[in-house]
Design goal:
Elements: E1 2-9, E2 21-30, H1 34-52, H2 62-67, H3 71-74, H4 79-96, E3 99-107, H5 116-135, E4 139-143, H6 148-160, E5 163-165, E6 172-175, H7 194-210, H8 220-224, E7 243-246
Parallel strand pairs: 1-4, 3-7
Antiparallel strand pairs: 1-2, 2-3, 5-6
């Protein structure tokens, strides 16, 4: 069984929103590797404590690195050191062999007829379903606890009825139910979940690649240069592996043919 841990970067709002993109990341780990993955993260966190004094149980989020919050502020850790710690964590993710990951990126600068949150979550669940079908496995979803009611309702709906448009004709052609995803989603508080924290850092890394600042656009390429991204996710829509962009290959996203428009 595969477990999907999900967190976001940006917000889904369309009016007076401080962000132009809403990004979901899904961090996938197989149940057989779960204990080894957890032990690997704990070992890494102990190294960070020894090297930088960061407590093992301290919550680490992408924006804390960039905005110098939490223990980074308390310990007066320099910006370049914070960036190197971020890179070390992502390098652990891609070299450990425990993880796969996928993204959904919604560019809110374009007119939308649907709620970006619903669009992003539906896309993510469909891609996880496709991943599970390809692997011949079942799976469960563990979102950050801020979305649990919404995701529960959406997941229940999608397991019963989920019409999907054809990538070629644009017409509804199939009822693509998420039958490989078991049970309702189970919420996780990021404070107490290393896997949710890692998903948050993935999402923030992509966000800072789209809107680069202070060297943080160097983070996402660590994921992109590895086999950790689920290539099947973008097989039909094209673009970079592991990312579904809405609408299509939008400006500013890694999937775009337009480079560094911001």
């Amino acid at each position: 069984m595969y477990l999907l841990y999900v967190d976001e970067s940006g917000d889904p709002g369309l009016i007076n929103s401080p962000t132009t993109h809403f990004i979901l990341n899904g961090l996938i780990v197989h149940s057989n590797a779960w204990f080894d993955a957890l032990d690997g993260i704990i070992k890494l966190r102990k190294e960070l404590k020894k090297e930088h004094g960061i407590r093992v149980r301290t919550e680490l989020k992408g924006k804390y690195f960039y905005k110098n919050k939490g223990e980074f502020y308390e310990k007066k850790i320099k910006p370049e050191v914070r960036l190197e710690i971020y890179k070390k964590i992502l390098n652990f993710e891609v070299t450990s062999g425990y993880f796969k990951t996928l993204f959904v990126c919604v560019n809110k600068s374009y007119p939308h007829t649907r709620d970006p949150k619903e669009l992003a979550w539906q896309s993510l669940l469909e891609r996880f379903q496709r991943f599970l079908q390809s692997a011949g496995e079942r799976g469960m979803v563990f979102p950050d606890d801020g979305y649990i009611k919404f995701v529960t309702q959406l997941q229940r709906k999608m397991r019963r009825y989920n019409p999907v448009k054809s990538n070629f004709t644009g017409e509804f052609y199939t009822d693509y139910r998420i039958l490989n995803i078991l049970e309702d989603p189970s919420a996780r508080n990021s404070v107490s979940s290393y896997f949710i924290q890692l998903s948050d850092m993935n999402a923030y890394a992509l966000h800072k690649y789209i809107t680069p600042a202070r060297g943080y656009d160097t983070l996402y390429p660590i994921l992109d240069s590895s086999n950790v991204l689920v290539a099947e996710v973008s097989k039909l829509k094209g673009g970079k592996k592991g990312i579904v962009c809405w609408p299509g290959q939008c400006e500013g996203c890694p999937n775009s043919t337009i480079k560094n428009p911001f």
